[in-house]
Amino acid sequence: MFVDILFWVMAVVAVVMGAAVFVVDSMARATYALALSFVAVGVQVLLLHQDYVGVIVILMMVMEMAVMAVYMVMFMGMNPALMPMSMVHDKRKALAASTALFVTLAAGALLVPWPTRRGTPSADTTRALGEALMSSKMLVMTVVSPVMVATIVAGVVIASKRSRYDRLGDDLRGAPDDPQRGGVGR
Amino acid sequence: MTLQTVLLVAAALFSIGLYGAISQQVVVMVMMGLELMINGLILAAASFWWFLSPDPSGQVLLMVIIAAMTVEMAMGFAVATLLHRDHEADMTDMAGDLSE
């Protein structure tokens, strides 16, 4: 009973806050709304007995929204909490597309004869996940890790202002194009 | 709390995210739409896992989805930074060169 009530409260929070992201008139409020929506989904994942994944979702999303708020202050050149804005295009078509999608997905969810549950969950799902990641599902970890590293490298390369290729040319053999020569002038 | 109800909530989140991803003009808001879509995906995957097949493989798949979301956000922020630095753009309509 308690789980059901908590689930529905979190469901309403997740959906209402998700909609609020595109309704509220400032980006700061939109960011907080999205963070709340993610926390609500994290709690729902916890209710589905995935302790580790639920906690990860909550922690990661709160941090990510904090980064997003900093990003807005850096680049939008405004105080995001005070600047009302509404910048949309094709609002009607987008609304129609998303409504049609929701109807389709909801019909699928309600009409498909879902199979009954196969297998029983282990007593400690977090431990089971850890053991799977360190044994039979090791490949997932070994693939995800380099992808993460590649993302860090690519993110820095794309976002950095002036790399060594800008200074030395494509073959890295040119004279450095620096505004001020380095070294001690000898 | 049944599989159907959780899937309905997930479908609502995914659809709201799609609306945002299509309609918003500011790059960061488009990314928020994509985030919401992945949010719905996480919930749907978690409910499939619990109600249909609660063995560890499903949880591993969820971890992959979350990793994909991190990668999307990191690269999105990097591209938005590049756009802003290159031509002071923070709107998708100002970034037409990405489609060329």
Quick structural summary:
The complex is a heterodimer of chains A (186) and B (100). Chain A is 66% helix and 0% strand.
Topology:
The complex is a heterodimer of chains A (186) and B (100).
Chain A: H1 2-20, H2 27-47, H3 51-75, H4 91-111, H5 125-134, H6 138-159, H7 164-168
Chain B: H1 3-23, H2 27-52, H3 56-87
3D shape of chain A? extended
The assigned structural class of chain B equals mainly alpha
Order of helices and strands of chain A: HHHHHHH
Structural class of chain A: mainly alpha
CATH top level class name of chain B: Mainly Alpha
**What is the first-to-last residue Cα distance of chain A?**
80 Å
Q: How is the main sheet of chain A built?
A: none
Helical stretch tally of chain B: 3
Query: What would you call the quaternary organization?
Result: heterodimer
Q: What overall geometry of chain B do the principal axes of the alpha carbons give?
A: elongated
Written overview of the protein:
The complex is a heterodimer of chains A (186) and B (100). The model of chain A has no long low-confidence stretch (mean pLDDT 84). In chain A, 66% of the residues lie in helices and 0% in strands. Chain A has seven helices and no strands. Chain A has two domains: 1-84; 125-177, no CATH class. In chain A, helix 1 (2-20) packs antiparallel against helix 2. Chain A has helices at residues 2-20, 27-47, 51-75, 91-111, 125-134, 138-159, 164-168. By secondary structure, chain A is mainly α. Chain B has 100 residues and is mainly alpha-helical. Chain B has one domain: Helix Hairpins (Orthogonal Bundle), CATH 1.10.287.3510. Chain B is 79% helix and 0% strand. Chain B is built from three helices and no strands. In chain B, helix 2 (27-52) packs antiparallel against helix 3. The longest helix of chain B is centred in the C-terminal third of the chain and has 32 residues, at 56-87. Classes of the chains: A mainly alpha (186), B mainly alpha (100). At the A-B interface, helix 1, helix 2, helix 3, helix 4 and helix 5 of A face helix 1, helix 2 and helix 3 of B.
